[in-house]
Amino acid sequence: MISLQEGVIPEIVKRKPYALVAITKHGVMHARSYAEKFPYVDLYYMKKFAKGDEQQRTIQLFDGTVRLLLPALFQQYKAVICIISLGAVVRMIAPILVDKKKDPAVLVIDDKGQFVISVLSGHIGGANALTHEFAEAIGATPVITTASDVQKTIPVDLFGAKFGWVWDAEERLTPVSASVVNEEHVAIVQETGESNWWMHNTPMPQNLRLYSSTTAALEAKPHATLLITDRLIEKHEEVLLENGVIYRPKSIVLGIGCNRGTTLEEIEQVVTDTLFEVNLSIKSVKAVATIDLKKDEQGLLALTTKYNWTFQTYTPTELNEMSLKNPSDTVFKYTGAYGVSEPAALRYAGATQLILEKKKSGNVTISIARIVF
Hints:
Number of helices: 11
Radius of gyration: 22 Å
Order of helices and strands: EEHEEHEHEEHEEHEEHEEEHEHEHHHEE
Oligomer: single chain
CATH topology of the largest domain: Rossmann fold
Mean pLDDT: 92
Largest sheet: 8 strands, mixed
Distance between the termini: 40 Å
CATH class of the largest domain: Alpha Beta
């Protein structure tokens, strides 16, 4: 917990590029939801609104006036997003502003989450681009007041943010952004994830070129690469990432069954080991799906809370509606369903085939499906 004192800049733990701050009951409720929809933010809110899961979700609590927290956020983050009234934010940031080349972007969201307002550093600081992306992610209206706000290319550090995509290797964002802005040849390879990521009503610039595979991109020898995939890359592909960024769409569903009382540690180990075995990134996991008999299974609840994954349960009837290659009379005897991990993964993903058929390890059974976009 961060204790705020007059004249002392507090120590904070920065994990993401943007800070999201709330100071009211409704603001905190919305902020917790926004942090799930837009995964590039570190969330801060007042101690008195603590829910008890802040440590697991790496949410930082503070005690005292938010005005004393802002100087630390200004020093550490590319943008500060405030669920605070516009007038209050303007008064609080005025004493700590330096100039438009150094100040972070500042956004304001109203307490009902209807509007996202670009307040400071619209162009140079990226507030206008972030306002559009954040507003789309949370279903709000962006408010931009700069007359010349015209975006015609990809904001590399926000690419796919509205879908929950996350990137690997933050240090590569700046040089890749430079290639995009300088109109150098940039290869875009998409293997999975949402395809409607182009945000403008104009054609893509000619320097941004789509390739059907990493092989085709390698042959083209681009200056930079945007690779959208849920798999771990091969050694020969690493040359693309010398000036490239991998984006991880939320495309993977884990179907999990387990014995009652299985620990978080055992489930987590099976998940991480299995994903590595099938060459998939844990950053692309969107959900854990299982039977409704497991809706209160503490190990599964702890796992999904820790990784901020959706936890979805289905009735035996819903699971039995899925076509299975490996139905089990034994599982049906105890649960009323002919399978748990396989049909749960398939149903959530909207898929007909599994990446991984059910694999039993200790007390855990796991299957993996890819979401159909």
